[in-house]
Amino acid sequence: MGTALGPAQMVCDLWGVRSSYYERVPPVVDSHNCIPGQNREISSMPIERDVRVMRKSNTIHAIGCLVVSFVLLGGCGSSSNPAAPSSSTVVRRVVVLGDSLAVTPTPADGFPAALQSRIAGGRLPWAVNNAGVYGDTTADGLRRYEPLLQGDVGVLVLELGANDGIDGVDAGTIERNLAAMIEAAQAHGIAVVLCGMETLPLRGVGYTVAFHDVFPRLARRYNIPLVPFLLTGVALTPGLTGPDGVHPNAAGARRIADNVWPYLEPLLR
What we know:
Layout: H1 7-14, H2 20-24, H3 63-72, E1 92-98, H4 111-121, E2 126-130, H5 138-144, E3 153-159, H6 162-167, H7 171-187, E4 191-195, H8 205-222, E5 226-227, H9 250-264
C-alpha cells in the first residue's frame, strides 16, 4: 500500500499540487492555482482575512480546497404539469433556515424552490418556506429561528455554518448554536435535516477537521439525517455556479436540491 499520507499531503496530491507547499508556506490558499489536474507549485498569496464567503465573492475560488476537505475527511423528474394536492388536504411546511446558498441565484430559483417543484411533482402535501438570508451565521440563525418554527411546520432544513467557518468561529460555538436550533425544533415535534458544510484550510488542518466533525457528530447525537456536503457536484463546476465558483446558478440550485432530496423526501411521506 506504500507509506500513509498525512492530511496536508493528501490534500495536495488530490489536487495535483506538490506536497512541499504545505511544508514551506503557512496554511494559506492560492485560490487561482488550487485547481485539480494541474501539477504546479503554488505560490504564497495573501488572502483577505475579513472576507465572508456568503457576502463577498472576490476570493471565493479558494472554495476548491473546501471540496478537498470533504473528500479528505470522509465525505463521502418532475412532471411538466404536476397535480396539486386536493383542497381538503392539510398542507404542512418545510422551513429552510439558511444563508445565501438558499437564496441564490434568486429566491425564486434557489434550491428550496427546486425542492418545492419536486414536492409538487410528487403530489405531496407540503409547502417550502425559504428562510435563507445572505451572510447568516449560526449565531444569526439562533437569533431568528423561533418564529420560523411556529404553526404548521413539520420539517426544518438547517443550512448554516459556512460563514462561521470562513470567519474562524470556534467549532464548539458552531456546534452549540446548531444544537440549540435542533433541540428547539425537536421540542416542537419538527423533524430536522442537517446540511453538512466544509471550510477552507486557511487556519490549518486542525480547524478544518474540527469544523467538519461538527455536522456528523450532531447528526448522531440527535438521530437526524445529514446531507454530507451540500455543495457536492456544484462547487467549482462550470455551468453550475456563478462567477465566484461556489454560489449556484439555477442549474446548480437544482443540483443542490438533488443532494438534499434523498434525506428530505422520506420525512414527507
